[in-house]
Fold this sequence. Notes:
Layout: E1 6-12, E2 25-31, E3 39-49, H1 52-58, E4 79-85, E5 97-100, E6 107-111, E7 116-117, H2 132-143, E8 150-153, H3 161-170, E9 175-179, H4 183-192, E10 197-199, H5 206-213, E11 218-223, H6 227-235, E12 237-245, H7 249-252, H8 268-274, E13 277-280, H9 289-302, E14 310-314, H10 319-328, E15 334-338
Parallel strand pairs: 8-9, 8-11, 9-10, 11-12, 12-13, 14-15
Antiparallel strand pairs: 1-2, 3-4, 3-6, 3-15, 4-5, 5-7
Amino acid sequence: xxxxxxxxxxxxxxxxxxxxxxxxxxxxxxxxxxxxxxxxxxxxxxxxxxxxxxxxxxxxxxxxxxxxxxxxxxxxxxxxxxxxxxxxxxxxxxxxxxxxxxxxxxxxxxxxxxxxxxxxxxxxxxxxxxxxxxxxxxxxxxxxxxxxxxxxxxxxxxxxxxxxxxxxxxxxxxxxxxxxxxxxxxxxxxxxxxxxxxxxxxxxxxxxxxxxxxxxxxxxxxxxxxxxxxxxxxxxxxxxxxxxxxxxxxxxxxxxxxxxxxxxxxxxxxxxxxxxxxxxxxxxxxxxxxxxxxxxxxxxxxxxxxxxxxxxxxxxxxxxxxxxxxxxxxxxxxxxxxx
Length: 339
């Protein structure tokens, strides 16, 4: 079979003024080189659309695990692909499924070391195109959920939060509370994903909503938002509560900011007197996490104990619209572009 000689690629064409808009991007047809020594050619099946791109595109933040994206650069991110060509002396063969970070394009060339094979018996390969491992990592590495814990997940309707609530329950949490931006999503969190309560900041003060949902306080917080939700969570914390700070949606969804901050006022006296712990979490600090997550996810999927909600988008031409949909709240769970 003849190998493809071109690939379709999504590129940033202009620095956004505020939240990214469709006019800031273009989809181009570009030459695709033949695989060189040690290179693998992959046809992408799907790639992840994730809010962290706002930070990379906005040029904000420092010490990030990924490079910023400037006008003219191609977008990138987690993807699932099928091997079309691979070195004969390497571990991969045509037809193998792999995950990698060369998303936002139809085809990719990469060294085999940069590709992770998907086991042939994995129950749902597309589930691996998700940021959900960050929630698992925060809950197991940063806070250590214990039986009987009351757990709060902020930003619970996204790729991380929709799975994190289920994981918290599987780890022994007695009560799981989430937050989201819309009443419709709040209803789905409780009806479909086992959240005991789902709060919608805005209108009634959020601190009052949280006090009503957790009258005795919270033991664990998986914070994906920052801002006033983190402030309220500290105020609602019980003695010895543990916080995993995983995301910054408050800044990434704000048109007036660049996605690189999520300021919150923290009561330091309360942190000290109650012995609270607040720890930042990033996947790259835990190189053993991904393999552990894949093993546990496979087991939970086979047992029917977990689901990964998805918002599928068909075709690379709709990818930019899927990205802007993250910021307007038009998605639920993991947003993936399927090719």
